[in-house]
Write a structure and sequence with these properties.
It is a single chain. With 530 residues, this protein is α+β, with helices and mostly antiparallel strands. It has helices spanning 2-17, 65-69, 104-111, 168-173, 178-181, 194-205, 209-220, 230-234, 246-266, 290-300, 305-312, 318-326, 329-333, and strands spanning 94-97, 135-138, 183-186, 190-193, 272-274, 281-283, 358-367, 375-381, 396-397, 402-408, 411-415, 426-431, 444-445, 450-452, 466-472, 475-476, 486-487, 490-494, 501-505, 508-511, 521-523. The strands form 6 sheets. Strands 7, 8, 10, 11, 12, 13, 15, 16 and 21 form a 9-stranded antiparallel sheet that branches. Strands 17-18-19-20 form a 4-stranded antiparallel sheet, with no helix packed on it. The chain is globular, with a radius of gyration of 24 Å.
């Protein structure tokens, strides 16, 4: 009765004030809901708008002031607006139901308030995950934002359980476009097929392969057609950059944009879009889900504001195109979301090296795979008398028991629930593990078992080390977030920038330092393994 009563109150008050924010009808899964009072494109509040949130051009530091002044403002004729009644009190608070994955600090950032200003009938955890559906009462501060209509579920952006059985090669084999016969030479693997390129980028970055195929088809027609235009052949994802041609580099660029949008929103680092082509800005509606923000951000990096409006239109843009290509994404999401179940906790994990050896904590929270996206990874370097990428006799060890599901190109992936799927449950990623020494696929390891020697293999590295990150249900889990990265009681704390930060255990503090200073030294003791 309490939940139902809270929802009823939220609906009543929202109706009275014509709040732009949707009151969620389900605590765990929120399907898209059309509203007759909102436009189908970009809904903006009327009235005198503070310049911070108005959609305005942002001149670069090198732009010509005369040219900047000549940029026409976006008017009400080009961006539809919704006019609330003039008698609506602007001071009335917003009633918001927490989504799975929300925390008090990230919600506060999105709504432009401080955490202390948010209240609730129920207790509010300071940093932990908020219970999905919990009612939050938030001061109204944002004058105008993008539409709050959700266009894609979270599970359709990350490589989630809903895509665990999706076979990229089988799907591409049934098509008749350029992708089916495309081949690309890669230094790490030799010549591979187009389907193999898509699958590799998807699994390494944990981005849903359906989404990559749909964006590829939307931008260039590679899946069902055979384009002849030079730009579509060279830049199939629509990003024109002479340094990033061909399918693999184009997909890498694409997953970076999707990850910036998704995890920037999830972790409270992104609240605004800047359209790269005309430099207009738009504040994101604070009750959007991370999956929708990923798509909104992606298209803002390709199109100007008007092209973006067309691309994200739910009825005629990419969301409708995606539905036509792969069926109803919300129906699939209903069977797997929330990706963050209530009360999610990390299983016990140990530091990823053998006891009684002094390693160095060389990288605080930073990008899980590519440089951008979730700050989910930590770095540790073994003892060495040589700098740089020197061979090491030290061993990277399993932080928990699990099944090795990938072991290739400097990478070892450990599936903790043992079902053989990276898309479900807890998964640990170890990067820069020497291929010559790495444990083979299919091996079941216990906590503390050897996985391989640390190295520089598997990506850009300036010195021998191991990079470790966590995933749950296909989503990267931030190292300093609502589910703390806890290794033998050492808790990761982010610094002021990527790779900075600390490990804290009680009154002990280890400081991340790429140069392995004394303050970065850390050791696993025999007692830690008991």
């Amino acid at each position: 009765m309490k939940t139902r009563s809270s929802k009823a109150v939220a609906f009543l008050v929202s109706s009275l004030i014509l709040s732009h924010l949707a009151c969620l009808s389900n605590a765990y899964f929120i399907p898209p809901q059309a509203s007759p009072t909102l436009p189908q494109e970009l809904a903006m509040f009327a009235g005198t708008l503070p310049p911070t949130y108005a959609l305005l051009p942002t001149p670069s530091s090198t732009s010509d002031p005369a040219q900047t002044a000549a940029v026409p403002p976006i008017s009400a004729t080009s961006l539809p607006i919704t006019n609330p009644p003039t008698e609506t009190p602007a001071s009335l608070p917003i009633l918001y139901n927490a989504q799975a994955g929300d925390t008090l600090p990230t919600v506060a950032v999105r709504f432009g308030v401080s955490p202390a200003e948010i209240t609730s009938p129920d207790p509010l955890p300071e940093k932990a995950l908020l219970p999905p559906g919990q009612l939050l009462i938030i001061p109204r501060r944002l004058a105008n934002t993008t539409t709050a209509e959700r266009i894609l579920p979270d599970s359709e952006v990350v490589y989630s359980p809903s895509a665990a059985d999706f076979d990229v090669a089988a799907y591409v084999a049934q098509t008749s476009g350029k992708l089916r016969t495309y081949e690309e030479w890669m230094k790490s693997t030799g010549t591979v097929s187009g389907a193999q390129v898509v699958q590799r980028v998807a699994i390494e970055n944990s981005i849903n392969p359906r989404l990559l195929l749909a964006l590829l088809e939307y931008q260039s027609g590679w899946v069902s057609g055979n384009p002849t235009e030079a730009d579509k052949l060279r830049y199939p994802m629509g990003y024109i950059d002479p340094f990033q041609p061909a399918l693999f580099h184009q997909l890498i660029w694409a997953v970076n944009q999707l990850s910036i949008g998704y995890y920037g929103w999830r972790e409270g680092r992104l609240t605004e879009l800047t359209f790269v082509k005309d430099r207009y800005r738009a504040r994101l509606a604070p009750d959007l889900n991370a999956g929708s923000v990923a798509i909104l951000y992606y298209f803002s990096q390709i199109y100007d504001s008007q092209g973006w409006l067309k691309a994200v239109d739910p009825q005629s843009g990419f969301p409708a195109f995606y539905h036509q290509m792969f069926g109803d994404p919300w129906e699939r999401a209903a069977s797997v979301e929330p990706l963050y179940p209530p009360g999610l906790e990390q299983p016990p994990l140990s530091l990823p090296f053998e006891p009684n050896q002094m390693w160095s904590f060389t990288g605080g929270p930073h990008g899980a795979w590519e440089r951008d996206g979730s700050y989910a990874a930590l770095d540790f370097a073994p003892p060495s008398s040589e700098a740089g990428c020197a061979p090491s006799n030290a061993w990277v060890t399993a932080s928990a028991a699990g099944l090795v599901v990938r072991s290739e190109r400097g990478l070892v992936v450990l599936d903790l629930d043992g079902d053989g799927r990276e898309q479900t449950g807890w998964v640990l990623i170890y990067l820069h593990v020497s291929s010559e020494s790495s444990v083979p696929v299919g091996t079941w390891v216990a906590r503390g078992d050897r996985l391989g020697h640390p190295s520089c293999e598997g990506g850009i590295a300036t010195g021998t080390h191991v990079h470790i990150a966590r995933k749950f249900n296909g989503e990267w889990i931030a190292a300093d977030g609502p589910v703390p990265f806890n290794l033998s009681g050492w808790i990761a704390v982010a610094g002021e920038a990527a790779y900075k930060g600390f490990l804290v255990r009680g009154d002990q503090v280890v400081v991340a330092n790429i140069n392995a200073s004394r303050k970065s030294f850390i050791m696993l003791s025999d007692e830690d393994l008991q």
